[in-house]
Design goal:
By secondary structure, this protein is of the alpha/beta class. Helix 5 packs across helix 6 and helix 8 runs parallel beside helix 10. The longest helix is centred in the middle third of the chain and has 25 residues. Bound molecules: adenosine-5'-diphosphate and N-acetyl-L-glutamyl 5-phosphate (X2W).
Length: about 290
């Protein structure tokens, strides 16, 4: 029997659920690609909270796809191995020794931690990388970045099979080259490419800031393509935010309806964005909806 605890406002809880109905209907059957950045993963508690939201999302009919990063975890392993690392515009210069470490950390450590956290909340997650079922075939991004790849062929057939069996794909941003190479893909780039190939309804880029900020540090809740170009030119969008905004634009060009950059450390960030009137972070839309 349920305890009749009157110390909480249960009526408000019931109202919140009721108010979510139009959003639940809107996203029934939708594909939502969620990029979980290394900085957004934070604590064990934060990861479990994220996993719970993903399981809830799937329970109400959404097909979530997780693409993760793990930059801080790669940095820490490279430090231990005394391998120095540098970035150009938010992308890691990746030589042969570095790409081995990147694959080990992303596919071995980070991917399995997220998969386990989702399964621990009663979901059914399967960990993959771009190498599985030729999910992401890459070509080198630019020569100065070494083994950094851009996905040029995406095979989403395995993802559709997983959706049919209510399994949540958790994807590490590692790609295969046509000559048998391993490529390090920026997590945002990988998420955008997968969202584009799936023509996802939403791409959520979870990071460690409330959204894209203007020169005075205020979060821009709605961003146009032109505004992004201007902010990058002015140096207001810098570092790791460059691949994120680039990704949002490319995803929209490929047919994703909207991309949102939001704070993954905030409690229930994904639910707030999808299932409430409030929304969260900075949204970049394809066209007025
Ligand atoms: N205009 C901007 N608005 C918000 N964050 C920005 C901006 N320009 C640069 N950044 C930086 O981008 C970071 C997010 O990118 P990154 O560290 O790569 O995140 P993640 O690990 O989540 O992918 C923020 O923590 C912030 O320091
Ligand atoms: C090419 C490139 O930069 N790859 C990234 C892959 C991980 C990543 O994207 O992690 P975050 O999302 O946590 O930043 C890297 O080596 O750090």
């Amino acid at each position: 029997m349920k305890p009749r605890d009157m110390s909480r406002d249960w009526i408000a809880t019931a109202r919140t659920l009721s108010e979510a109905l139009p959003f639940l209907q809107r996203y029934d059957g939708a594909i939502v690609v969620i990029k979980l950045g290394g900085h957004a993963m934070g604590s064990r508690e934060a990861l479990d909270g994220f996993a719970r939201d993903i399981v809830l999302m799937q329970q109400v009919g959404v097909n979530p796809v997780i693409v993760h990063g793990g930059g801080p975890m790669i940095n820490s392993m490279l430090d231990k191995l005394e391998i120095p690392s540098r970035f150009i515009d938010g992308k890691r210069i990746t030589d042969a020794a570095t790409v081995e470490v990147v694959e080990m950390v992303l596919s071995g450590q980070v991917n399995k931690a997220i998969t386990q956290a989702i399964n621990g909340q009663g979901g059914r997650a399967a960990g993959l990388s771009g190498k599985d079922a030729s999910l992401m075939i890459c070509e080198p991004a630019t020569p100065e970045l070494g083994f950094v790849g851009n996905p040029v062929e995406i095979d989403t057939s395995l993802l559709h099979t997983l959706f049919k069996s209510d399994t949540i794909p958790v994807i590490a941003p590692i790609g295969a080259g046509r000559a048998g190479e391993t490529f390090n893909i920026n997590g945002d780039t990988a998420a955008g490419a997968i969202a584009g190939a799936l023509k996802a309804d939403r791409l959520l880029l979870l990071t460690d800031v409330a959204g894209v900020k203007d020169a005075s540090g205020d979060v821009l809740t709605e961003l146009s393509v032109e505004q992004i170009g201007q902010l990058v030119n002015d140096g207001v969008i810098a570092g790791g935010m460059i691949p994120k905004t680039e990704t949002a634009l490319q995803a929209i060009e490929s047919g994703v309806r909207a991309a949102v950059i939001l704070d993954g450390r905030a409690p229930n960030a994904c639910l707030l964005e999808l299932f409430t009137e409030h929304g969260a972070g900075s949204i970049i839309r394809s066209a007025p909806q």
